[in-house]
Amino acid sequence: MAHESMETVAKEFPVDAGVDRTDRKKLAKMLTRIVGSSHVLYAKTRGVHWNVVGPAFYSLHKMTEEHYEDLNTAVDDMAERIRAIGFAAPIGISEMIENSVIDDQKKLLPAHEMVKDLVEDHEKMARLMREGVAAADEVEDVKTADLLTERIGVHEEAAWMLRATIS
Ligand SMILES: [Fe+2]
User: Fold this and answer.
1) Cα–ligand 1 centroid distance for 131 (angstroms)
2) 156 CA distance to ligand 1 centroid (A)?
């Protein structure tokens, strides 16, 4: 027998923690772009981790592992933030890709080209995070602003590290 009274599909729920619904909805949309982008970058980073060859193999293999592990944790935190402000988080890969500002890696390229792409992607992420912080600040969602501010530095550092290996 179906438990009709038991709601098991995530949907918007009321939140009264100091930020208006309209503002939270806008932020949820921004966070969805950020989560989608971070997820695509996570997958792309693993692609480099697995396929990198050449003199920088060991350092790039290790570095990309640190980066995708960080992205994995960050995606989780940011998707859960969407839930905490009352909205549904992305449900699958298609939704992640649709909302991503990062292009999926579709073919294997020489290592330095893929790493150069990652550098640009991390810089793109830093810019997206800045937009996110501005949007969160505007509605005084200090928690979201805090979460995203932290991410700016992480992406800037990742861009620097990756760039240094191919310089
Ligand atoms: Fe591995």
Assistant:
1) 32
2) 23
Distance between Cα 98 and ligand 1 center (Å): 27
Q: Where are the domains of the chain?
A: 22-103+110-165
Q: Which of 162, 141, 147 is nearest to 35 (CA)?
A: 147
Tokens 């697995």 correspond to what residue? 50
Give distance in angstroms: CA of 46 to centre of ligand 1.
8
Task: Provide the CATH topology of domain 22-103+110-165.
Answer: Ferritin (1.20.1260)
Beta strands in the chain (DSSP E): none
Record the tokens describing residue 58, joined without a space.
């060991």
pLDDT tens series, the chain, 167 aa: 555 567 788 778 888 888 889 999 999 999 999 999 999 999 999 999 999 999 999 999 999 999 999 999 999 999 999 999 999 999 999 999 999 999 999 999 999 999 999 999 999 999 999 999 999 999 999 999 999 999 999 999 999 999 999 99
Q: Is 27 helix (H, G, I), strand (E, B) or coil?
A: helix
Q: Is 140 left (phi over 0), alpha (psi -120 to 50) or beta?
A: left
